């Protein structure tokens, strides 16, 4: 019988062993801090100024259904819903908890989930915890989605991302929304990587396309372009009530501390003033793409996520180490995060 040590040793021998990395000190080409807000002294100052006058506890002290709720929570959720043109919002401690908490409490055994083949691991985990049947459709392939819809029963939920975290391509959301509407399927969009950088004032891809009323649920997270932490699920008032009653990762988690709520609040306040930062981000991306050499194999992407394909785990790790010695903070992406033999330098 395999032991923990045996399995870990096998992973080491296969070059797949994970370790925690050091703090980034070189030029950052690896993090999700697209707008530099995690490093912004102005944002830090505004957060600290609000915290200094807040007469609140340091921590939430419990789950929101017990001692952890507050007027600060309620005001922030109203602010979030208004910013994204949603009927309601419900905050979670992290994007992972939001995705798992949403999908795990939806769907009976008569219902169906259809997931894009490249959605985030947290969405896959949430779907696995649900009782619903599951299908995957080929990445961003609307024709294959239609085939899967024909096989689906009960309440049908189609799950996609706005901007895909590994390939860096943008969802064919307009087409997918039209297909879902015709099939009477509910569309769920994870906007982890699209919020903050797409749409008016960074409201996300759904808002950019004017699809707010066509989407059953959106997940917006604050650990990427927002440079902070936490997440919110956007949807109808009924969906919010459902989550409060049945989403286990919400019910059984301690609420966010007041400091974190203020941080999210202040970044939302700043978002409308960051259009120049967003423009600079896209200009940087265009410049980066113009310098890509043709003999290297890059995944097709028109977003700030750029991925270089390198065959073999050993080769991709050597390349990453070489770039790190030259002052560029990049890391190799290995299976099982990506497919076997599709190792990436992820920028």
Written description of the protein model:
By secondary structure, the chain is α/β, with parallel strands linked by helices. It has 2 domains: 4-36 and 275-346, Aspartate Aminotransferase, domain 1, CATH 3.90.1150.10; 48-272, 3-Layer(aba) Sandwich (Aspartate Aminotransferase, domain 2). Helix content is 39%, strand content 15%. It contains 13 helices and 12 strands. It has helices at 4-13, 41-52, 71-83, 95-104, 121-129, 142-150, 173-183, 205-208, 237-246, 248-251, 258-270, 275-290, 313-325; strands at residues 27-28, 88-92, 112-116, 133-137, 156-161, 186-190, 217-221, 231-235, 307-310, 328-329, 331-333, 343-346. The strands form 3 sheets. The chain has a 7-stranded mixed beta sheet with strand order 2-8-7-6-5-3-4, with helices on both faces. A 3-stranded antiparallel beta sheet has the order 9-12-11, with helices on one face. Helix 2 crosses helix 11. The longest helix is centred in the last third of the chain and has 16 residues, at 275-290.
Average pLDDT score: 93
**Based on DSSP secondary structure assignment, what is the total number of beta strands?**
12
CATH class call of the largest domain = Alpha Beta
Beta-strand residue fraction = 5-15%
What about the largest sheet? Answer: 7 strands, mixed
Please bin the fraction of helical residues: 25-40%
Ends apart, CA distance between termini:
40 Å
User: What is the overall silhouette?
Assistant: globular
Q: Give me the Rg, rounded.
A: 21 Å
CATH-derived topology of the largest domain = Aspartate Aminotransferase, domain 2
Number of domains: 2
Walk across the major sheet and give the strand order. Answer: 2-8-7-6-5-3-4
CATH architecture of the largest domain: 3-Layer(aba) Sandwich
| H-E string | HEHHEHEHEHEHEHEEHHHHEHEEE
